[in-house]
Amino acid sequence: MISIRCLVLVLPAFLWVRTANAESNISSNDSPRDISTSLENVISHHHVPGLAAVVLKGDEIVAEGTAGVRKSGATNRITINDQFLLCSGTKAMTATLVAMAAEDGKLSYTTTLGDIFPERIRQMNPDWKNVTIAQLLEHRAGVPTESGCLWTLLRIHFSRHSTAEKRAAFVETILSRAPKYAPGTKYVYTALDYIIVGAMLEKIYGHSWETLIRERLWQPLGIASGEFGAPGISKSINEPWGHWGMIFNGCPIKPDGFWARLSMPLFFGPGGAAHMTITDWAKFISLHLCGDSANPNHHEALLKSESFAFLHHANSEKSYQAGWYLGTRPWAKGNRQGDTGRVIASLGDNGFWHTEAWVAPEINFAVIVICNQGGTGNKPAALACNDAIGALMKNYLPGR
């Protein structure tokens, strides 16, 4: 996504079905507990417009709820069927498509940019040729940050090409220049890595990333609400609006207005431009919760164990892999020998939306919270999500 920090810089100047039986079996039980009152207390304390949250135990929703309004100053209440921008939560979905392509034999994790784009070898800076898709998924490929090529992004964004053509134009431009650092030498987070990955998948399959994610991932999981860009329209407050969270705190932005389109252009799709209901996002989170081999109730869907292992596992040199932040937490530790409390977390923020999903395979538990206001660190949206997650863990962690 285009970082809100990048936008601040320019203000003064002007994130086919594999099998017919693969559909996720996630379900709400007969009466998942309503946690809306708890969320109301959180938004009242932190003064954010709204929140939505889900608690998962395996493939079952045990608690869900919403609080607040779709747009600050309006009376339209957020509902559990409303759609939210996932921001960087989309990256793990793109990485899942890569794992599917690997299982299809279309690529390996050591496949390089030179392998995928041989027709661009003459124009490609030679330092890109051996960059692997794994390095792109880990943010270790040498790709610049959004602020490092802001004018290129703006030029492509406002061009009159299709979404896929814009991704291709971006890749062509970036690969004609030298990497910002020696590929493989350090971690530098940028959504642009995933735009390149999306273009690689498009080249391999001959279909747009949007088609691939619908047919290969969303349809098998039963995700029906998935779309692209900010949800809703300005003429009707039919979905939550994003709200400024780093500057102009709490000011709503029109979903089809200038700032929404600039902060999350459609060609950024693979890195953060998907939106859906929180219960549909829970279907994807459940796929990874249940597919992880550390889960005592482990069962696979769509991917094999080796693929989940690649997507989820850190080593001594990295704490990010394939759209997930990786680490350990005391609360996530299971009771089996060898359990470490390993967690995988999906965290997203584009300045207008804030999303978090914390997945603890060893205890078969996940919690998801989304705020329709952006802001990281000590900003209200991040603090509200942190408080909501803490309250839900207190009430729903196994053994409590």
List its salient traits.
400 residues, Beta-lactamase, 11 strands
Write structural notes for this entry.
By secondary structure, the chain is of the alpha+beta class. The chain has a single domain (4-17, 26-396), classed as DD-peptidase/beta-lactamase superfamily (Beta-lactamase), CATH 3.40.710. The protein contains 14 helices and eleven strands. It has helices at 4-10, 36-46, 89-103, 113-116, 133-137, 150-157, 163-175, 192-205, 209-221, 258-263, 269-272, 278-291, 305-312, 380-396, and strands spanning 27-34, 50-57, 60-68, 83-85, 227-228, 274-277, 320-321, 324-328, 342-349, 354-360, 365-371. The strands form two sheets. An eight-stranded mixed sheet has the order 1-3-2-11-10-9-8-7, sandwiched between helices. The chain has a three-stranded antiparallel sheet with strand order 4-6-5. It is globular, with a radius of gyration of 20 Å. It starts with a helix and ends with a helix. Residues 1-24 have low confidence and may be disordered.
Q: What is the count of helical runs?
A: 14
CATH class: Alpha Beta
Low-confidence stretches: 1-24
Q: What's the rounded overall pLDDT mean?
A: 90
**Strand residues, percent:** 15-25%
- Output the helix-strand order: HEHEEEHHHHHHHEHHEHHEEEEEH
Question: Could you write a compact summary of the structure shown?
Answer:
This protein is of the alpha+beta class and 400 residues long. The protein is 35% helix and 16% strand.
SSE blueprint and pairings:
Layout: H1 4-10, E1 27-34, H2 36-46, E2 50-57, E3 60-68, E4 83-85, H3 89-103, H4 113-116, H5 133-137, H6 150-157, H7 163-175, H8 192-205, H9 209-221, E5 227-228, H10 258-263, H11 269-272, E6 274-277, H12 278-291, H13 305-312, E7 320-321, E8 324-328, E9 342-349, E10 354-360, E11 365-371, H14 380-396
Parallel strand pairs: 1-3
Antiparallel strand pairs: 2-3, 2-11, 4-6, 5-6, 7-8, 8-9, 9-10, 10-11
